[in-house]
Write a structure and sequence with these properties.
homodimer; Aminopeptidase; nine-stranded mixed beta sheet; five-stranded antiparallel beta sheet; Amidase_Cbmase (chains A, B); manganese (chains A, B); N-carbamoyl-L-amino-acid hydrolase activity (chains A, B)
Chain lengths: 419, 419
């Protein structure tokens, strides 16, 4: 079968999508359910509509855009990704998987291809944890990975250590996504296969000069809040020996995270403290309370848990030595996922057919496919991004690199939808 | 001379002043030139007016309330303090010195005392560095300790590492304080003496059961910004060895500050990192930039500079080892001040006359008197505060403790204004 990816159209659409941003270009800031996110969704749905796709939104704001197959009752072939972006991020993370899938579908349509199974493009809600403190919200919900109570319990994380943000319940309803989260749960036979195209967010493909990475495993991510309660006071008058400075304790924890992660000796273990909120946060006031975030990932759940255990022990030691209270609260600690060998085989064949170089690799980043693996056989394909840079305004994949990925995706969607 | 402090009125006025707050009680948040600060100033000026004091405001917003003496051309006896409060502070820091001075004046008036020299109560603008990043703004300006260019250069600090706040120029003019800052400069013979009553913000007086602390030296404070520029990226995909995590570097600096301060071996050396702003500040993003504040104080300027030198060296080592850029910028590094032995002697005699116990001590906190010492002979008197706690909602001095301080202040103002 011959088909042609309209790369220029795809480039234009990636540029347009990037313009829906709360920060000026080249930064992209598009927090889920923000004004910019809702405007971007409206624009992208117009593109789905132009392509003749049938759409529905679920209660958490996932959008499903379906190209009906000749046998629409068969489980569909799924593809897609997310369009939300953390503050000061770039324009390729997630978006390549959404607009690339759309372009793949349009290329197959233009080539006269008629799928037997339906092909369904999923735009996932809140892959980024920015707003609600938990990643992959949309895919968690449809795969039954959130308890129903989460609907009520989840709140915006951005209100900081003191205030309380709005609930997910209230925010999603204000954005127009109503109904109970239970209604969004998908049955196990909904998809026959799910494939996500994404930028690598690492530098392996670029450094090896390989066009496509076929993901064998998705690393097991875990997220935590660490709250340190010390004692405040005046920065001049309270002498050093009597202090219980919460930020000094936090500094030791930040370094203990780094040390514990390096101590596993495995390159697959990564740990990051990305948030450090200090109360009261004044130049002449001793910090009385600090809230840290901790993001810990590994391809091996046991090894990740061992690193966490070390961090936990360090917190205990620091709390006792510095006479502060330290609370480590788990936000989520998910199990790793494996790709389906059959889909990976189909991807390899598609790469060969399109003369695109590939290698198998591990995904260290968090992706919706991690949760889709609980619903269906899955695989992910990566394309290179410059310098491995992601979540920054200078995130970049070239039109050529995107093109290689999208044409392999189109071919594999055609193949999987025909069987 | 017999006079009587109306402690109940003073208690009520302290309570009323505390109600001008941007945060609910018991917290007091009253940032200079905020709505709450301006309302508090209006209320307090009404009290000055009731006491028959003649008022003027200067270009930076200091208020001078004068009880004219029999010989009004003689240099006046000055007293006073500040009413601005950092976020989530308490109700006694500064306010005891302002309302206590007012009560002392009213007590002397009621007793029929007629001063020879005028007694002038000063309400200083922005003793706290919250808004403009520099403490003792009002006393710096009137003592010529700010270059005239500062009027144009000073900006709000609260806009964070990226944005720019409003200029002092614009904020003070919006608040109604116009004219050039030069016009606020006071001549050397304006005051014959200046005395500030303040809570100790430490626990020495309380633990020793002493009613009044007579300050011999005010510690030399210095303030700095430290900006760390590393490299951001995705918390999952960027492996540990390639990272230039700005927050890990910041953590080492925070601990180096603590270590360098402890290394002087002197209890008089204190150092605090009170602000830690992380960019971009997302759970799954490696921190690319961190801004820290550093507050460093000592009674010995040379020893303070030696600690700073150690911190500076640590920053250099950390920058080189972690391959990040670290910039240490001085906001201010002021010289210490000594009290006038004559005024301290007068204070001791007043304590003896009122049967109030006292000891001499060092002021470790920053006070407007530090800058008033450049204009006139000065002294400070401290009263105990519970547990040494200050800059917190639970800051507390009892009515009895305040009463002891105010009656000594009244007696010494009477004495100094008679000579």
């Amino acid at each position: 079968m011959n088909f042609k990816i309209d790369q220029q159209r795809l480039n234009r659409e990636l540029d347009t999508l990037a313009s829906f941003s709360a920060d000026p270009a080249p930064a992209v800031t598009r927090v889920v359910f923000s004004e910019q996110d809702l405007a971007a969704r409206a624009w992208i749905k117009e593109r789905f509509r132009e392509a003749g796709l049938t759409m529905r939104d679920d209660a958490v704001g996932n959008t499903f855009a379906r190209w009906a197959g000749a046998n629409p009752d068969l489980p569909a072939v799924g593809t897609g990704s997310h369009i939300d972006a953390i503050p000061h991020a770039g324009k390729f993370d997630g978006t390549v998987g959404v607009l690339g899938s759309l372009e793949a579908i349009r290329a197959l349509q233009a080539a006269g291809f008629k799928p037997r199974r339906s092909i369904e493009l999923v735009l996932f809600t809140a892959e980024e944890p920015t707003r609600f403190g938990i990643g992959c919200l949309g895919s968690r919900v449809i795969s039954g990975s959130l308890t129903p109570a989460a609907d009520v319990q989840l709140r915006e994380a951005s209100a900081g250590p003191e205030g309380h943000g709005q609930t997910l319940e209230s925010v999603r309803k204000s954005a127009g996504f109503t109904g109970s989260l239970d209604s969004a749960l998908l049955p196990q036979n909904y998809f026959s296969a799910f494939i996500e195209l994404h930028i690598e967010q690492g530098s392996i493909l670029e450094s090896e000069g390989v066009s496509v990475g076929l993901v064998s495993d998705i690393a097991a991510p875990a997220a935590f809040h660490i709250v340190i309660e010390g004692e405040g006071g005046h920065a001049g008058a309270r002498l050093m020996p009597g202090r219980k400075d919460a930020l000094c304790a936090a500094a030791e924890i930040i370094l203990a995270v780094e040390r514990s992660v390096l101590a596993t000796g495995a390159t697959d273990t990564v740990g990051t403290v990305g948030i450090c909120q200090v109360h009261p946060g004044a130049m002449n006031s001793i910090p009385s309370r600090v809230q840290l975030s901790l993001d810990l990932r590994d391809t091996d759940a046991a090894r990740r848990d061992a690193a966490l255990e070390q961090i936990h022990n360090a917190c205990g030691e620091i709390a006792s030595r510095r006479r502060v209270a330290i609370k480590l609260e788990t936000i989520n600690a998910d199990a790793p996922a494996q790709s389906s060998p059959e889909i990976v085989k189909a991807l390899k064949e598609a790469c060969d057919a399109e003369a695109v170089s590939y290698r198998t690799m591990v995904s260290r980043a968090y992706h919706d496919t991690l949760f889709m693996a609980r619903l269906a056989p899955v695989a992910m394909m990566f394309i290179p991004c410059k310098g491995g840079v992601s979540h920054r305004p200078d995130e970049y994949s070239s039109p050529e690199q995107i093109h290689q990925g999208v044409k392999v995706l189109a071919r594999v969607l055609a193949g999987l939808s025909a069987i």
